[in-house]
Amino acid sequence: MASPRIIVSTILLQFYRDKVSTKAIDVTVTVSSLHVKVRHNLPSCFTVDFSSGQSVAPKKVLITFNPSIAFEMPQEHLQIQFIDYFDYLSTGKLNYVTNSVTVFINILEPQTNPNKINHLLSEQLECRICLREFSEDDENLTPRILTRCGHTLCFKCCSSLPGLWGTACPFDTMITPYMIAELPNSVN
Predict the structure, then answer these.
(1) Which of 146, 149, 151, 159 is the most buried (most CB within 10 A)?
(2) The RING-type domain covers which part of the protein (predicted)?
């Protein structure tokens, strides 16, 4: 078996669907006169940047994924092929090329931290001062929204807040220009 004429630093690149990012593929050729043709089926949300021309073996290929550009996923796997250009010319068909390397591209769903989600959910369901769960049944535990900043506290904790011309938020000191009884109830 002949040694490979095209060597790449990786055969798999992974991008997160919600994050702009750039990855590099280092390409090495084992024959100095070898020219490499690069083909890919990447949608328009990807840019492929060759440090050299398309038919000359690049040393580094940069692939940038920009999820803000709308795209449709192709039916086949996303891939970049590095092909021995002269092998391609002699056969005229990609199917008969023996000296090529394929790098596959995966788009991954964003990672979520379960602890962060649980923290956000519990924060929305409890008063941030007394840490008691909001309740529609107990007037003291009904959630009240400080409309100036958006923080939500229970009625009892809001009643203990200072403020001559409204209610001062204990977290950011913004003053909501309502008295406690006038604060909107986030349940209603």
Answers:
(1) 146
(2) 127-173
Which three-class secondary structure string do you get for the chain? Answer: CCCCCEEECCCEEEEECCCCEEEEEEEEECCCCCCEEEEECCCCCEEEEECCCCCCCCCEEEEEECCCCCCCCCCCCEEEEEEEHHHHHHHCCHHHCCCEEEEEEEEECCCCCHHHHHHHHHHHHECCCCCCECCCCCHHHCEEECCCCCCEEEHHHHHCCCCCCCEECCCCCCEECCCHHHCCECCC
CATH class of 6-108: mainly beta
Give the distance from CA 152 to its chain's centroid: 29
Residue range(s) of every CATH 2.60.40.10 domain in the chain: 6-108
User: What CATH number matches the domain at 114-182, 3.30.40.10, 3.30.1360.120, 3.40.50.300, 3.20.20.150?
Assistant: 3.30.40.10
> What pTM does this model have?
0.52
Q: Render pLDDT for 31-82 as a digit per residue (tens, 0 to 9).
A: 777 777 888 899 999 999 875 444 455 578 899 999 998 887 777 789 998 8
What gap in Å lies between CA 125 and CA 131, rounded to an integer? 9
Structure tokens given for 87? 């092998």
- DSSP-derived secondary structure letter, 3: P
